[in-house]
UniProtKB/TrEMBL annotation:
Residues 210-237 form a coiled coil. Residues 87-173, 188-274 form the PhoU domain. The keyword Coiled coil applies. InterPro entries: PhoU, PhoU-like_sf, PhoU_dom, WH_DNA-bd_sf. One of its GO terms (biological process) is intracellular phosphate ion homeostasis. Keywords: Coiled coil. It comes from the Archaea. This is Phosphate transport system protein.
């Protein structure tokens, strides 16, 4: 996506989600000139996509959004471009939230840890916006498949859960006074990278209809579980070498276990999102048996 298209997309997002009253307000939010806002919006105002009061015609917006999207989209999801865009934006936000929370651990930076926790408020708001948008789509299109539309809500909820686990990672820095052992940290770095890849694969599968990505995802799931076991074993060895009379040290191990578990759960949730994608695109219902018992 070119820089110009990216800026136009940001302008449309602000109009869609923030309801600005003037072009000046849009310009201030994006840190660009009002003249540049006018220049980019002028063609869309002329063709009726953007109204003078800075409202968007949703049908026209779908065509514009498709041309600016990072994802190709599939025939099945074409009718819900706006919600796809919201899901993609939420996924990008959650990726950033994971990055900030883990950077806080790597740098032992309490300020970044607090920022990661603050980002969770935006994550929660995005879930609500997606939910209300899905309700609007269902009410506007009486022929829509309600069960399929509800899968958008499930995906958003899964991303919200991942955001919650970011909080476990960030709180390690806020609650603890010890830095992580280098050997454990190496395992966590690998788990972090794998978790990010798994989320990306699941979201790409849903938005672009690439359900064949499940094989790659399952390989990564196996890797993250192996790393989890190794990390837990290392922590257990350290616990055996320390006295439990030290309350702070005991808390350190508890919080560290939560960090390891957070990355493992992100991987599991990614698999659940992939299952949602397969149900959406291939009409294959998900198993009702918990994954641990399959």
């Amino acid at each position: 996506m070119s820089k110009k298209d990216k800026t136009l997309k940001d302008i449309l997002d602000i109009i869609l989600y923030d309801n600005p009253s003037t072009q000046d307000e849009i310009a201030v939010k994006l840190g660009i000139t009002r003249r540049y806002v006018t220049q980019l919006l002028q063609p869309l105002v002329k063709d009726g996509t953007v109204k003078r009061a800075y409202m968007i015609d949703l049908k026209s917006y779908e065509k514009v959004a498709e041309s600016l999207s990072d994802y190709a989209g599939s025939n099945e999801t074409k009718g819900n471009v706006i919600v796809n865009d919201m899901i993609a934006n939420m996924a990008r936000h959650v990726h950033s939230q994971i990055e900030v929370s883990f950077d806080a651990v790597l740098e032992y930076d309490e300020e970044k840890a607090n920022k990661a926790l603050e980002m969770d408020y935006a994550t929660n708001n995005m879930v609500e916006k997606i939910r209300t948008s899905v309700e609007t789509i269902v009410s506007m299109n009486k022929h829509s498949e309600i069960s399929k539309s509800m899968l958008y809500n499930e995906l958003a909820y899964d991303l919200e859960r991942i955001g919650d686990y970011c909080g476990h990672i960030a709180k390690f820095v806020i609650n603890d006074v010890y830095e992580i052992d280098e050997n454990v940290l190496k395992k966590l770095k690998k788990m972090y990278k794998i978790a990010q890849k798994m989320i990306r694969l699941a979201i790409t599968s849903f938005i672009e209809g690439k359900t064949e990505l499940k094989d790659d995802l399952m390989e990564l799931e196996e890797s993250i579980h192996i790393l989890q076991t190794k990390a837990i074993n290392l922590i257990a060895e350290q616990m055996a070498e320390n006295s439990f009379d030290e309350k702070e040290r005991s808390n350190y191990f508890i919080y560290l276990f939560r960090v390891v578990k957070a990355f493992e759960r992100m991987g599991d949730i990614s698999v659940e999102m992939m299952d949602v994608s397969i149900e959406f695109h291939e009409n294959i219902p998900r198993s009702t048996t918990p994954r641990n018992f399959r």
